[in-house]
Amino acid sequence: MPIDELATLIGARLVEIEEVIDYGAKYKDVVVAKVVECGKLEGSDHLNVIKLDDGGKTPDVERDENGFVQVVCGAPNIREGLVVAWLPPNSVVPETHGTDEPFVLGARKLRGVMSNGMIASARELALFDEHEGILELDDNLLPGASFAESYELNDYLLDIENKSLTHRPDTFGIVGFAREVAAIQGKEFKTPDWLGAVRPDFAPLEGDIDAPVVSIDDKTLSHRYQAVVLSGADGAAKSPLTIQTYLARVGVRPISAVVDVTNYLMMLTGQPLHAFDYDKLVEVGGGKAEIHVRSGRDNEKLVLLDGRTITLTPDDIVIAAGETPIGLAGAMGGANTEIDSSTKNIILESATFNLYSLRGTQMRHGIFSEAITRFTKGQPAELTAPVLADAVRLMEEYAGAKRVSEVAESYPGEAKPYAVTLPYQKVNDVLGLTLSADEIAKTMQSVEFKVEQEGDVLSFTPPYWRADIHIPEDIIEEVGRLRGFDTIEPILPRRDFSAVRPSKFDSVRAHTRRALVRAGANEVLTYSFVHGDLLTKAGQKPSDSYRLVNSLSPELQYYRQTITPSLLSVVRNNIKQGYDHFALFEVNKAHPKQHGMTDENVPAEVDMIALVVANKKNQQGTAYYEAKRLLNYLAQSLGLELQFSPMEADPNYPVTAPFEYRRSALVTDKKTDTFLGIVGEYKKSVARGFKLPDYAAGFEIGSIPVLEAVQKLTSSYRPVSRYPGTERDICFQVETGTPYQQVIDAVNAALKNVQVEVSVSPVDIYRGEGTKVKNITIRLALTPHEKTLTGDEVGAIINDVAQSVMTATGAVVI
């Protein structure tokens, strides 16, 4: 299939292609040549005159009487008989291919001697960063052969966006990706036998070193850990150039045969490997070959291979020799077991680790290696053994290493195969297709699912690398994706459908938003995650909040306990923008620790309604009453009648923590006796912390209690009165410590048996400077429904109210 068609198909059915890189165009002019003569250039201490045999394949180049091409070269490793990569005249140096200024070679004289092109190093070939000498090719290559064809560089590199493959660890290896590419083309794929074997055969044992004893503290840390000891590895040995060029293509720098084998198999299969120095491990472990997979400990230190010293936490997974850490599992080995030129015996590790723990480790310690990237996708435990077995084979072939111990293993997470069953017609019903059972079976068999049929029901057993398959819908999605969602013919639904009626809870929240906006408030939306300092400034304890171990930033590290601190944090910014008087509200969720966890083991959510009102300039009156007015407006629009109770002391709950209890009240719906929340002004420490103006107050109530109160209400409808109503104001002089609510309670007690409709509202609260009394003025609105009230009847009601208040509070009517 042409590469552009293949890229389009992969983009439609597998993953987005960011870029297609044509490697063949980069290396099309590179020729395999053999050095037939090598002599010193007269007058130079490092240059050599080289005669190359290119098989006579390169046209338009100057040759001697034997058909050889002359090149001047200063590489220290140039010698007769060497097979090299030659860049003839008029070719572009691959290192500069695709740049704004590609370097085109020519034939020119150096120290008076003609040089035709150049012999290239690995860096000049854009393979890897090696420039001390020229690249030495395999001896069996024939002069004149294409360098690109000899090392499979007449190839295309697909640069993909891997976000859509996060749940597919198998596609983070070339074999798994190739399996998917075959399937979306409708072709059969067969996993190599060595990779498909869950219990593979290892190379023969050629030594008697004790295998390490492997233990795993908790199977949630690692489902499987395997290790084997190899001896006699040549640390200086290089892997075949084919392997080196393969690694270079995918962005991995070749180092040595031992390291290259682990990287090659990781890229091929997706399974990372790691090697420890066996003798150093025994020394660190107190003379014993023991590998212990456990959680890190508070303030435990580990020096990594890159020289950094990190502080471990119980959220990290540690590889330990006995009790001494020697590696950060899945991320990086420790310096105390590093392989170096003195290494004689190595322990090769193949394991899986908890992907969620490693994601936290990745962010906490800033390690973003190829290995941890794959581990955090969730590698299957069944993959460790075949990859380890092939690594042993390749280590022996490329580095001369021999297996000298049995394979040590701990396998607490061994899983049994499972099947997903569904009627084949359900696939068609969901996708809108008309596939036969056989077509569905063949589609899934192309990605190596085992499929069995019994009547109209198909049973699918996923291969071990497809741990993402659990329910029938997963199978249906796979069938649709592999056959192409773009091939499904769009048709109108055949079934009737109707809009979903909003739930009562959603209706109450929507009504709340509309009511508060009508009252003049502005809705905001803030993050559910907050900084610990924000909690402290609001008088709340960070220890009462759930903390994210892998937060995006310190600003978003804690779940908030209530909404009020988030609202207070935006007041100052609005004032700085020139808004002097405003009210902000938010209808959202909080996650206080006191509410515990859900059945799904996630923090329980609490739905809240919070508001803050602030006034920078006009500070007449008290902010508490403005917040209370807005709350009453909301309550009346919902049909609720609020009752406000004084607070004897600070209960120190998360919701009450920001409020000054002496200037706040607990809020209850009077009709249903449902507790709702709190309204009041803020503590001075809170006001200072958030730089609030002196005039600031607010409330926070629970959305669920509001819903419960609304649902308990009975109809209170009364027709509009045909008789005229009247209003009367009464001013009571009371002691300064008498609460307003005490006056209102006495008023309501007097009106309890009155046969007319009466509403009570505050008019004014005044206290003269230096006095011990205050004046509370209220307004009574009387609406009769049976007849017009006489002056005596109105006076009797007013007298009863006055008498009730005076008896209850010791007030004087003025």
Q: Topology, pairings included?
A:
Blueprint: H1 3-13, E1 17-22, H2 23-27, E2 31-40, E3 48-53, E4 69-73, E5 83-87, E6 107-110, E7 113-116, E8 118-119, H3 147-150, E9 156-160, H4 174-184, H5 193-196, E10 213-216, E11 225-231, H6 241-249, H7 257-269, E12 274-277, H8 278-284, E13 290-295, E14 301-303, E15 309-311, E16 317-321, E17 324-328, E18 332-333, E19 345-351, H9 355-365, H10 370-375, H11 384-399, E20 402-403, E21 408-410, E22 420-423, H12 424-431, H13 437-445, E23 450-454, E24 457-461, H14 472-483, H15 504-518, E25 522-523, E26 529-530, H16 532-537, E27 558-559, H17 564-576, E28 581-590, E29 606-615, H18 623-638, E30 642-646, E31 659-669, E32 674-682, H19 684-690, E33 695-702, H20 703-712, E34 726-735, H21 740-750, E35 757-766, E36 773-783, H22 791-809, E37 812-813
Parallel strand pairs: 10-13, 25-28
Antiparallel strand pairs: 1-9, 2-3, 2-5, 3-4, 5-8, 6-7, 11-19, 11-20, 11-21, 12-19, 13-16, 14-15, 16-17, 17-18, 22-24, 23-24, 26-27, 28-29, 29-33, 30-31, 31-32, 32-33, 34-36, 34-37, 35-36
Strand order of the largest sheet: 25-28-29-33-32-31-30
The average pLDDT is 93
| Uncertain stretches of 5 or more adjacent residues | none
Extended strand count: 37
Biggest sheet overview: 7 strands, mixed
Percent of residues in helical segments?
Answer: 25-40%
Ends apart, CA distance between termini: 98 Å
Number of separate helices: 22
